[in-house]
From TrEMBL, chain A:
GO terms for molecular function: iron-sulfur cluster binding; metal ion binding; oxidoreductase activity. This is Membrane bound protein complex subunit mbxN. PROSITE patterns: 4FE4S_FER_1, 4FE4S_FER_2. InterPro entries: 4Fe4S_Fe-S-bd, 4Fe4S_Fe_S_CS, DPD_II, FAD/NAD-bd_sf, FAD/NAD-binding_dom, Helical_ferredxn. It holds the Pfam family Pyr_redox_2. Keywords: Iron, Iron-sulfur, Metal-binding.
TrEMBL record, chain B:
The lineage of its organism: Bacteria, Bacillati, Bacillota, Clostridia, Halanaerobiales. Residues 31-148 form the NADH:ubiquinone oxidoreductase 30kDa subunit domain. Belongs to the complex I 30 kDa subunit family. This is Membrane bound protein complex subunit mbxK. One of its GO terms (molecular function) is NADH dehydrogenase (ubiquinone) activity. Gene3D superfamilies: NADH:ubiquinone oxidoreductase, 30kDa subunit (3.30.460.80). Signal peptide: none annotated.
Automatic annotation (TrEMBL), chain C:
SUPFAM superfamilies: HydA/Nqo6-like. PANTHER family: NADH DEHYDROGENASE, NADH DEHYDROGENASE [UBIQUINONE] IRON-SULFUR PROTEIN 7, MITOCHONDRIAL. Belongs to the complex I 20 kDa subunit family. It comes from Halanaerobium saccharolyticum. This is Membrane bound protein complex subunit mbxJ /NADH dehydrogenase subunit B. One of its GO terms (molecular function) is NADH dehydrogenase (ubiquinone) activity. One of its GO terms (cellular component) is respiratory chain complex I. The keyword Magnesium does not apply. The keyword Ribonucleoprotein does not apply.
UniProtKB/TrEMBL annotation, chain D:
Signal peptide: none annotated. Belongs to the complex I 49 kDa subunit family. It comes from Halanaerobium saccharolyticum. InterPro entries: NADH_Q_OxRdtase_suD (IPR001135), NADH_UbQ_OxRdtase_49kDa_CS (IPR014029), NDH1_su_D/H (IPR022885), NiFe-Hase_large (IPR029014). Residues 121-369 form the NADH-quinone oxidoreductase subunit D domain. The keyword Translocase applies. Coiled coil: none annotated. This is Membrane bound protein complex subunit mbxL. The keyword Coiled coil does not apply. Keywords: NAD, Quinone, Translocase, Transport. GO terms for molecular function: NAD binding; oxidoreductase activity, acting on NAD(P)H; quinone binding. PROSITE patterns: COMPLEX1_49K (PS00535).
Amino acid sequence: MANDKKSIFSPVTAFKNLVKKPETVRYPAESNDAAKRYRGFHINDLEECIGCSTCQEVCVNDAISMVEMLDVPAEEGQRNERPQIDYGRCCWCGLCVDVCTTGSLEMSRDYSYIDLDPDTFIVTPDQHDINKVDHPLGYLRDENSDLLDLKRIDIEMLDPEARVDSFIEIVEGFSKEQAEKEASRCVECEICTDTCPANMNIPQYIRGIFDEELEESVQQIYEDNPLPEVCGRVCTHKCEGVCAISHRGEAVSIRWLKRYAVDNVDSADYKKILGTEKIEQNNKKIAVVGAGPAGLSAAHYLSVMGYQITVYEDKENAGGMMRYGIPEYRLPYDALDKDINYIKSLGVDFVFNTRVGEDITLDELHEQYDAVFAATGLHNGRSTRVPGTDNNNVYQAVNLLADIARGKEVPVTKNLVVIGGGNVAMDIARSMARLQMEKYGEVNITVTSLETEDIMPADQEEIEEAREEGIVFKPGRGPKEIEVNEDGSLAQLCTNCCVSVFDEEMNFNPTFDDSDIENYECDMVIEAIGQGGDNSYIDDQFEIEYAGPRIKINDFSQTSVDWLFAGGDIARGPDVINAIRTGHDAAVGIDKYLNDEL
Amino acid sequence: MRNEKELLELINVHLEPQAVEIKREQNVSVELAPKNLIQALSFLKSHSYQHLSTISCVDWLEEGAFELVYHLFSYDDYINISLKTRIKREPGIFQTAKEIWPVAEFYERDIHEFFGVEFKGNDNLEEMILENWQHLPPMRKDFDTREFVNDQYEWRDYNGQKHTD
Amino acid sequence: MNNNFVKGSWQEILDWAQNKSINMLHYCTGCGAIELPPTMTSRYDMSRFGIGPAATPRQADLLLVTGYLSTKTLRRLIYTYEQMQAPKFVVGFGSCTINGGMYWDSYNTIKQLDKYLPVEMYIAGCMPRPEAILDGLLKLKKMINNGEADGYQRYQDNLEFYHQNQEAVLGEVQRTQ
Amino acid sequence: MDKSTQTEIFFGPNHPGVPGNYGIIYEFEGDTVTSAKANAGHLHRGFEKLMEERLWIKNTALVPRICVEEPDINEMVYAMGFEAIGEIEVPRRADYIRSIILELARIQGHIFSIGGNAAGIGQYTVMHWGTLTRDYILDIFEEITGARVYHIYIRPGGVRQDIEDETFDKILDLMDELENERFPDLEKTLFENPNAQKRWQGKAVITKEEAVEMGATGPVLRANGVPHDLRKMMPYAAYDDVEFEVPTYENGDAWDRIKIARDDMLQSIKIIRQLIQNIPDGPVQTDLGNGLKYKIPKGDAYVKIESKRGEYGYYMVSDGGLKPYRVHVRGASTPLGLYGVREFLPGTRIADVPVWAKSLGICPPEFDR
């Protein structure tokens, strides 16, 4: 006790406060603004918000629910729902602001809302908070508090030199640890599902990878897509274009994850996983014309329903453009065959080297089968028909690609030009680059296209990869003429400047400027400006409605002839996933048609 | 002043641990059979582990077991020991540690109230935190609080404004 | 004093006097009570507006329900409320009194305060800042002055409704009235 | 004891002298308490059950609500538990910021409880000053974290956002103001005030043996000459980089415990100055990927830190899932609030029951959970 100073008068020191200015905050006379980072009421930029409901997913108190906003258009990549916040639940923790994929949800510094009626404590925030008054911005997310995983896992690829040397697959795929990390980036908002032409259950199969249950992933994938090995490599992946994470970071690698899932499940277990060990057969028989993606998809879904399927294919093997159009370095044949063999194992018969319209007529199919699905695709290359295209050193890309796929000898010259800006042009250019490297040890290829680089239909990655492999691009050029020497060999391709490709109504109507001429010497020209189809086997025998160049089909891929269904590029393009969707629709349509529900 | 390894040697020699592990610096975990636990507590208490932080209970529903964890600390070694033992979920009976640490009576009372574990020798196990609670002890994994809440209470629908999908 | 209060000039004078000096019951029922000391003491100083703490329900006329209510506290809160003398007012703090707040899925808390006690007003927050509390109390003073703060009246008129809800959660409740 | 002279008193849960929503039912004879038991449970929300229903990141918003006087302690222990099981490294700057936040929380906790203790014996001036000083610290918290009381700032893997330089300056100015103006005033008004000393000396004595037996730590132990402080015994965050002493006294009574609170605050000021002076640069959060998918391997850990009332620990179990499998909260005043009341309150005079409860820092939400 001794050391405790004590004095009865020491508390007197408190009296000095009588003369000091009181420290009371004179609220409400003087307003007392909250701190810069204060977590106040919510505000939300309704245009920037895409309704991905990730805030609802992270909300600790189930305070956020999504509300239909009729005046907001539900175009691609967003939903017309916006978050509604229940202030009878909210705890102002700000996790929703930290996770918001577009950064539209923020917090003001406003903290005072009082009301007699508890039912007013709910709001769908817009640029004003619940008090409908503008308040300065409060808490803002920054790179430390960000809850999203914005950086993509880079997938291992061969470097350019190794790529050009051979046709082996350039993308090596994810390891288990990489795939699970990449899968963990998905916030399961399902905006990709809305955009995918086949509406695949993408978050569900990614979650299967994350939970290390690949069987679950395979089940989710096969519900809408029977060719996952193919789509896991060559899909045009529109889903990644609208992925919620792509707004502030890099999209989730949805395509590579699909590939990882099916690469790591043995096809021997497919039947057990998908419950197709024994399928109860009904006695109906369906004919499928064309073993491309659309035909295979229809065949798969119909045989799972119990129908007996026969696929007529005029080439010597199944796959259509997947085998004969897409080069091996993008889609190896063992991956393609894994998908096809599973479909064969379901009891689908394939009749190869049989061209419907020659070896067997569509009418005969109509008699022998209860319904027919036509998916013959577009296999004839179109020509620019500029002077000189009749020369025999001018080839069609599709024919060359088919021959390369068959392993046949293909003419390869020292210096060649490809006309075209789409994925087929990329495929032929990069395939010829490999053949040139093999034959001459160097690459000398020029690709010209009407479109300038930003509107070229080919994938952006493809263009970059091609450039890395030594291919030179001359975009925005119109082919005028191929000059031919006397001995028939080619001299050069003369091109003018292509000012615009589409007119106001977005129809294909290119305009040129002849004053700007550029010529490219070459001893070979390959045209890859699009393909046409040969529907004579249908048109000769049946009156069928067309919508422009393509056959008109309803939501069940049914044509104007009720027993005839059509899909793939002849009805709806432009890519594999759309073909798969039309095949799946046809299967459902045929099933309904044969049960008189259509 | 023992370090973690010396402590483990002491434990391996004198007690019959099923598993011993140095989890992190100054943190050791020891698994024992239920019958050896009370004796282990008094042994350790006599070896400078006088501080009982608390007794935790974990309900391993799938494995049909309650895991009781006694957290001890020594003011000489500065090491935390988590003494673990597993008892069958049904009937869920264990002895009291009241004689060694009188305060354990209240930790056991808490575990009884929230898990339903009986502690023989501790007669002070009546309700303390909850009030006339007639349902399953709430911390057991088979008691679903959201289901309980959804049928006990109603939610405000803000006269139709709340959008529940 | 019979239950139906005589509305008239005398009542207006009473209301005027009432709102000038409100005794707030010093009962921290929930975690929101931590913002009361700053509001009561010198920094925000609610006694500038005539509002001060009172120790016992007998001398209090304002009951602040500061956040969630466990069922155990609800029982004692009902005893407290029924011991308070009319006119008495209840103010709900924070989200927990409106729709369950953070503890919406807790088996031991009630979700909507207005099912068990008549509530004059709610102050949004988790928990409301001292300034928001002052806004609420000033609004309460105006309501009292205009005679709109009639929660105790509503409690009397719908006694059956309130008692049934209370007993649904608590079982039997001792009544003082 | 003749029954007729025995009466049962319900002290709380609605009573100014009681620390929060908590009651003590005691019998007394004449003026002295003869037997007592705790009437706890009023603040039970079933945190441990709720935590099992929420993702790891969601619990960071729930956890500070466990103890309203010291939310940051809960955030820190939860983050440390997650990092211990997941073996996650925290950037050094985040360690420093965490220590700064914890020391600021210690000062606001101590000054608030000194105010509370003073109110318990009628010294309302000190209560006003305590709450006022605490409010200035809350302003700093508001600037750093965006909220006054529940900061939701310390997260698994680091802290939510960095502290700007001008906030550091504000902290240093406040520390000077505390050390040069507010604490000297407090010293004169309370600690040199003979009435206060008499009111607290010799009251609510807990001896060293009783404390160790019961598992009570912190000021209860340090008031008996035992210099135990987890910041020294099991250093965490940035405490191994700072020098500070652990104040101890001899008598184990309320008076010594309140002096310890005062000395702790002075040490905390010293710590904060050292931390701010040599805080390293760099990130403040390790990248744990997508917040909705935080996952740590199966495992368990008992983590504890030094709150202003002693050891505050969590026993956390993870089954490798996205949500904690089990979290057991061990509040610092659990032994005292439940067992201590029955064992050590008898013998106290009725007027000293508030002094007993407040000076031992009984905080009911810790054991109600």
